[in-house]
Write a structure and sequence with these properties.
This protein has 9 helices and 3 strands, in the order H-H-H-H-H-E-E-H-E-H-H-H. The protein is mainly α. The chain has 2 domains: about 60 residues, Helix Hairpins (Orthogonal Bundle), CATH 1.10.287; about 110 residues, Iron/manganese superoxide dismutase, C-terminal domain (minor pseudopilin epsh fold, 3-Layer(bab) Sandwich), CATH 3.55.40. Strands 2-1-3 form a 3-stranded antiparallel β-sheet. Helix 2 packs antiparallel against helix 3. The longest helix has about 30 residues. GO terms for molecular function: manganese ion binding; superoxide dismutase activity. Its cofactor is Mn(2+). It is an enzyme of class 1 (oxidoreductase).
Length: about 220
């Protein structure tokens, strides 16, 4: 079957396995702002390394892994297909997560969301302050590396907070649709905040792009 992936969609999704034989390579998405745009909350050096080195590595490794997977599929080599699953999950998750993360941040961010998203936050968490405290606590509590997420539970029609280890993608591992992701890998903050993760989490709220989170919420409710 012929499957077409535009460069825009391939930057956001892992191609379904049936389409691996005819897909474009994944590419590193451009940041919608300069590396220094989120200062003083996240400095330019962190952003540059995080985007141009860490995210780029996930993209490169994902392309290499998919190439090997394609060969294994063509040979009917199930053993190799299974052995490649962890690399697909890690690098594919790293690419998906960071592609969301960059758009969740903005130099014009911070404050509080408006409209439907704010109503849903109040409904599901009691108040914005309560939500912020809960997502911060879950993100602080991630052991080692991982992510804190605000997701949408489509079945229950409500917002939910979750933590994922390493680069596990939220939707692929929990079924929740990702709205807001907070990267708590040390490479996301160590150069500026050392090992004090709570300071980084306090600062990141100043650059959260609520317009982006709101549009993600509106899209998954359709």
């Amino acid at each position: 079957s012929f499957c077409f992936f535009s460069p825009r969609s391939s930057a956001k999704l892992i191609a379904p396995l049936g389409c691996l034989l005819s897909r474009q390579k994944h590419t590193l998405p451009d940041l919608p702002y300069d590396y220094g745009a989120l200062e003083p909350h996240i400095n330019a050096e962190i952003m540059q390394l995080h985007h141009s080195k860490h995210h780029a590595t996930y993209v490169n490794n994902l392309n290499v892994t998919e190439e090997k997977y394609k060969e294994a599929l063509a040979k009917g080599d199930v053993t190799t297909q299974v052995s490649l699953q962890p690399a697909l999950k890690f690098n594919g998750g790293g690419h998906i997560n960071h592609t969301i993360f960059w758009t969740n941040l903005s130099p014009n961010g911070g404050g509080e969301p408006k409209g439907e998203l704010m109503e849903a936050i109040k409904r599901d968490f009691g108040s914005f302050a309560n939500f912020k405290e809960k997502l911060t606590a879950v993100s602080v509590g991630v052991q080692g590396s991982g992510w804190g997420w605000l997701g949408y539970n489509k079945e229950q029609g409500r917002l939910q907070i979750a933590a994922c280890a390493n680069q596990d993608p939220l939707q692929g591992t929990t079924g929740l649709i990702p709205l807001l992701g907070i990267d708590v890998w040390e490479h996301a903050y160590y150069l500026q905040y050392k090992n004090v993760r709570p300071d980084y989490l306090k600062a990141i709220w100043n650059v959260i792009n609520w317009e982006n989170v709101s549009s993600r919420y509106a899209a998954c409710k359709k």
